[in-house]
Structure formats: structure tokens, C-alpha cells
Amino acid sequence: xxxxxxxxxxxxxxxxxxxxxxxxxxxxxxxxxxxxxxxxxxxxxxxxxxxxxxxxxxxxxxxxxxxxxxxxxxxxxxxxxxxxxxxxxxxxxxxxxxxxxxxxxxxxxxxxxxxxxxxxxxxxxxxxxxxxxxxxxxxxxxxxxxxxxxxxxxxxxxxxxxxxxxxxxxxxxxxxxxxxxxxxxxxxxxxxxxxxxxxxxxxxxxxxxxxxxxxxxxxxxxxxxxxxxxxxxxxxxxxxxxxxxxxxxxxxxxxxxxxxxxxxxxxxxxxxxxxxxxxxxxxxxxxxxxxxxxxxxxxxxxxxxxxxxxxxxxxxxxxxxxxxxxxxxxxxxxxxxxxxxxxxxxxxxxxxxxxxxxxxxxxxxxxxxxxxxxxxxxxxxxxxxxxxxxxxxxxxxxxxxxxxxxxxxxxxxxxxxxxxxxxxxxxxxxxxxxxxxxxxxxxxxxxxxxxxxxxxxxxxxxxxxxxxxxxxxxxxxxxxxxxxxxxxxxxxxxxxxxxxxxxxxxxxxxxxxxxxxxxxxxxxxxxxxxxxxxxxxxxxxxxxxxxxxxxxxxxxxxxxxxxxxxxxxxxxxxxxxxxxxxxxxxxxxxxxxxxxxxxxxxxxxxxxxxxxxxxxxxxxxxxxxxxxxxxxxxxxxxxxxxxxxxxxxxxxxxxxxxxxxxxxxxxxxxxxxxxxxxxxxxxxxxxxxxxxxxxxxxxxxxxxxxxxxxxxxxxxxxxxxxxxxxxxxxxxxxxxxxxxxxxxxxxxxxxxxxxxxxxxxxxxxxxxxxxxxxxxxxxxxxxxxxxxxxxxxxxxxxxxxxxxxxxxxxxxxxxxxxxxxxxxxxxxxxxxxxxxxxxxxxxxxxxxxxxxxxxxxxx
Length: 859
What we know:
By secondary structure, this protein is an alpha/beta fold. About 35% of the residues lie in helices and about 25% in strands. Strands 2-3-1-4-5-7-6 form a seven-stranded mixed sheet, with helices on both faces. The protein has a six-stranded antiparallel sheet with strand order 14-13-16-9-8-17, with helices on one face. Helix 12 packs across helix 13 and helix 22 packs antiparallel against helix 23 (about 725-740). The chain starts with a strand and ends with a helix.
């Protein structure tokens, strides 16, 4: 019998648990069909899950269908519990991705798809709720191929049609189909396992429609994995049973595991459990391919590899909010920390820490629902009622350029020195650790110790004290003493080397960004666009259907996290917003964040930046900026760095007039020698020619209309009641401004009200007014217009969009914020008022005075 570990994954409310329930019922594993909304689902047996109607913890069940035994893992669908879902992915043979046929592909669905691609897990897709979906199979398949992968194939279609679709996914499948007019099932199964084909099935889990067909497809096209005889296992989860016993949930990936077996020097297996729902069966042995829970392993942790398996890679999804835990009066913080250590083992992404300086316990979580769940768990398990504050954004830090970090630890009878190369990594790469140190400089066991010290701790940056990320740390060199060096010495030297390197480098603060999908009534599009721009966000307009416009893009979490309530208010409940974590990007208001953090790296005694050296039998502290001068080891990187710093000065001394002439000729070509007696005349002619050839270009203003309207108080207040009135008032103000400046002025609006998406341009008195195409924003038009007009005009772009300002500056245009334009318009108004008052004060009519002056001259 085949044995396969398969997981169900989906966006929340897609019917994931309901599908698992139907599969278990039809396979005969359960006798009663439960429902999530009735609170009696087989896999949602936790009290909080049944009361809330959502899956919080991943569960497993065992079922059989024909010749295959499934270990079915039901994972959470809510974004707040994404870390629980991601931990499960690392042990799956296959995944079932459930799509809600009513809503289609959601933003979180795309996030799950990227995770499945990252972990290279073959996928079967089940489109659920087809009994209530208004979209047809064909339209849903088009969306799947557009947003997930073009190799999604309808396996419920007639055999000939299905084979033809599958043949288009891979060259080998196409060759087989062209030769035999049919595809070999073994070959097709292999291509599904290689993620070259993604089978799609349709049905309704609640009404059990299409479930048997889906189970038949799983048993027909799933390929068994070949496991080695050597023992290996991956620990993906830590829990505790009702008696408080620690359980390590793992998948056996090679050989077998028996009761009483020893793992390491001190760990022994007391019991092996195979769970199905809330009940388990104790077994004497777990073989390769099976998932089990092991009792008796006290020092094991989630993500650990046993046997030949390596430690699991760090999860891609992480919490972006940092909450301060508020303890009840009389509760001891250190006792609470010891209790919370259990929860940290079960969910490493909580990152439970204690700030000694502020006397605070801090926890990282994904959102409010996870906060409520954690409060209930602490209350039930430890009988303590805690609360949390509103939470703060969890920032990160990284560096912009490579730097060598050095650490030295040499108090009396101790010695260790470490040299590290810190390099900026790609966005989202996390911390990568490597060694380039020859073993003849430092023994292998010391190198391994240094690398383990780099991995064991979350190193903090020097700007805000936030964790560092997107960085590669390479061990360059080090030194140990044959007699005085101990393991703890290298820990101190390694930590100090990281901090010294960070102090030497140019660091920046990173903030989390949301990937969002925003749906608003078309009449509120300009407001939505302006809001996204104010959030330092970027977007594209996806579609406009039934007077609703969909925007997708990314924006700062700090500025978008509370936008849902504001959106509901100004769209009168019609607007929708869906967000998922995208990653970390450079912070736009770094100085403000650093000031608010109030972090001083020099007073952080737990993370010192300097080193300890020894002189006359006593250790002394050397600050970070003087450490390199006293290091005992000189690395090749240090020599290269010094050579590069000194090379330019030496090179400048060697250059003489002949060398400069040679460089000039090589760059610009040979010049014509002038006669000495005509040099003065030639110089005068060249200057005069330069003055006549350079003509001052006329001025052109490009104005982002809606950006100005939502930035100026007068127009913003007017737009709240009547947007057309605000536009007319802006045209009037810009007409007066153009008359004073005598320039070309183009006022650009997003044309969301133009029928059929056709833009238009017209002249309003002395200015040009542009309404862009429906799929084109004002930013896009301004960028294109700047590129075309910059050859003929001195272009000034008026907008408060920081990204737009950066782009137009790169194209040679001058940038002006909406506030600067407002000040210039108000200044113009004041000057005109002063001129009028001056004329009134003098008491004469200017045109008549000019006529008198002309008559006087004639006489």
C-alpha cells in the first residue's frame, strides 16, 4: 500500500476543513460527518477552534482510499497563523490547494502558492463551492492560469481534452501525445510530481460533489517517494498533551524509529504515537514516510533534523508586529518567562524576549486574532490573565556595503579573535552564513563553533536595536590559544565582531510592506490613489467591473494597517481591502524611527560593540573604532581594503600634463592647435558663440491634479462635497498662475469617469487639461510627457508623490511638492493684492498715466 503525507491549504473560509471532513467520511475513517459551523468537525476539536469556526493548529488524520494510505494534515487558513501552516509544508509529499469558487484566487492564495513553489511541493487543486459559484469552470481556469500557473489542467474534462491540455505543459508530454495520441499515466504522474502539471478538480465539499472523483485522481496520479535505509527525521512541530508531556511531531524520512531508541547522547524515545484527530495509537515502530509524535525527547525543537536530516531552513513568513505583554499585579516576570518558554518552543515565530532595560516582555505576532488566542492559552495553561498593548511595527536593519567586522576577547587566561565579512544580501534572503577561512589558520572545530554562535542568536542592529536581516556573514579568519581558549571565548569574540562590523558599516532601517488588493467604487478612485501614494505605496489598476475598480500593489504596513476602517467610512461600506505580508523594504522615515526607538548601541551591555584586550595581566576595553588597530590577525580583506584606500592618492601624484593630455585625447579625440597671435580673438569668438547658441528654454508645468486637490486644504474640503467643484476651482487657480508665469501648463487627472476608458485633452482658457485613459494613472502620463517635453522645455512637475518625484528627476525635470506650489500660488495672490493696493494708494489709473507719458514725450 502506498503511504503519502498530504496537506490541505487554502485562504480562510475556502472550505479546507470541510473538504478534509468529506474525504475522511467517504473513506470510512469517520462515521459521522461533522461541520465547521456546527462546531463538531473531526479535526477542529480544540475549544477555541470550535467557538471561532476557524482552524488554529495543524492536525492530522489517517484515511485509506483504494491502494493508498493518506496522512492528511489540515493546516490553518487564517493569515495570523501562517507560521503554523508553513512549518507543516516541510514534511509534505503533496499538497491540496483549495480555491473558493465564489471568490476565486485571493491574495493569501497567491502567498501560499509561492510557498509551495519555494518548497517544491507538487500540488493538486480543488475548486470548491461550485454549487454556489457564479463563475464557470472555463473562467475559473483562466484566472488560475493567469494568477497561479499557466500549467493548471482541468482533470475533470473529457479524457481527450485533458490529455491535450496536459501535453501543452511539457515537451516530453507533447512528444508522447503526438506519437501515441494519448499520454502514458506513469509519465503524467511523474510530471505532476515534478511540478510540470497541476491537476484541477471541481466540486462542493459540503455536498460531497466531486469528492470521489478527486480521491480517485489522487490515488491514480500520486507517486510514492523512495526513502533510504539510513535513519532520518524532520521535526516540524512541538506540542504538549493533557498531562503536560512534551511531544515532538516528526516525519520519518529514512529507516525507522523504535521505542527506547537513543537519539544523541541523552535523548531516548519513551513512546511513539500515531494521531488521527484528537486520539492516538501507541506503536512500537514508525517507518519511513510516516508521521508520528514522540514522547520523551526533552531538548528537541521545531525545525531540528535527526539522523542524516539537516536543520530546516528559516520560514519565509514572519510576524511584523511587536506586542508588549502586560502582567497582572503581583505576577513575577521571570516566572512568567519560564512558563512562556513552552509556548516559544511550540511556536518559535513568537520570539518571546525580555527587555532588561525597560523590564518588559515582548512577543511578536501576526495580528489581533492571534493575540486573543495567545491570551486564552496563557490563561488556561498557567492561570494568568495577561493583556497586550496595541502593538508596534517590528523593524529590521541591514547594511548597504561590505565591511569587515572584528572581535577580540582576551581577559586574563582567555583568548579568541574572529574576523567576519558582512555583505548586503538580496531582499528577503535573511541571514546567510558561510566560511572562507583556511583550516591551517583556524582549526575546523573552532570554525564550526563560530558558525554555530552566528546561528544561535538573533543579532541586533545598531540604529534601533532591531534584528538584522538580508545579510551574508562569512568567516574570514580567527585565532585561538592552545592553552587559554575555551568555547565561550569564541562566543564573545563572534558577537563582538558582528557588532563592530555593523558600527563600521552604513546601516539602514527596513520596515514591513503589505501586498494589497484594494477594491473601491470608481467614484472614489482618486481618493484611493492619493491614499496609496501617501503610504509610500505603488499600485497598478487591475480591472474595472460594474463601477468597481480594483487596485493591487504594495504599501507600508505602518501606514496601511489601520486603513480598513477609513476605507469603509469614505466608501460607505462598499470598499474592500485584502493584505498579506510581502517583505521588508527600506524605511521612508528612518530618522523619525531611530529617534522614537531611542536606542544607544554603546550602552547596550548585552550586545557590546568593542573588544577586550589584555595588557600587563589585566583586561581592558577598546571601543569599536579603535579595535582594528590592535587586532593580532590581518586578513586578506583588510590588506585589500587598505590598498584600495591608499591607491587613489598615489595615482594622483604620478599624473603629469602629458598624461592628462593623453586621457583628454582618448576621451574626446585630438584637438586643433590654434595660432598664438589669434588666441585672444578665438577665445572671444568662442564665448560669443556659446552665448548665442544657448537659448533659454521655455517653462512647462505638469500638475498632478488629484494629488494637488487632496493636498490643499481648501480643495480637499471642497472635494469632500463636490469633486467637480474642486476640479473647476483648481483649473481657475492654475489659469491665473499660468497667466503670471507665461508658461505651458498641463493639468492631469485620472480619467476614471470617462466612458469606455478613452482619455481626452482640451484647452481651458490658457491651460491644457488632460484626462488619462482608464487604465492609465496621472503618474504614468506625467512620466511619459516629461520624457517627451524635456527636450524642448524646462519641465517642472508638481506632485507630492515621492516615487514620482524621483522618477522625473532622473529624466531631467525639476520637482515641486504640492505645498511648494501652494506657497507660490499664494505668494502670487499676495503680490497682485499689494500691486492693487499700491495703485489705489497712489490714486491714479495706470493706463491713463502711460498715455500722458507718451503725449509728453511727443511734445
